[in-house]
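EI: anyone free to look at a 186-residue chain?
SC: sure, send it
EI:
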Amino acid sequence: MAQLIYSAICSLDLYINDAAGSFEWAAPDEQVHAFVNTQERPLGTYLLGRGMYDTLKVWDTLGAEPDASPASIEFAEIWRSADKIVYSATLESVETKRTRLEREFDAAAVRTMVDAADRDVSIGGARLAAAALHAGIVDRIDLFLNPVVVGGGTRALPDDVHVDLHLRDSHRFDNGVVYLKYALSS
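SC: here you go
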């Protein structure tokens, strides 16, 4: 059975961007990016909020530059080979391949889709993930904690939900980033 996985690159104080909306401090180096690719490779589908889609859609064309890093080339291939569902009430249309637009997030339909999938499903974007956490349908949370405190911005995890977590894996990178993989209690 596939899992629904929420993965976030965030600051130590659990923000995915700072108060100005910047996330430049979260750009993974080659070592972290290669590890992220290892985590992303088994995914079959990305569920994305509009902001996350707007951030990631560049990967439809990135990775073909002559100076592209091996990790960038690999991530572009992972992105292009996965199905994508974008949840947005305001987006007119999607412009990437293998992508469809949904106007509303239906937690029961997502859980049914994940249960029927043969590959894991990723949910991206803090607000969309918060809706899935509130609905109790997330199976795993992967956090990449960056060695920076930004003091405000968009929270990686919602304030108004309680879930018990079980640490399943961790990894420390040379640049101080720490990966934490948690399973959620049933």
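EI: The chain has a mean pLDDT of 95.
SC: 👍
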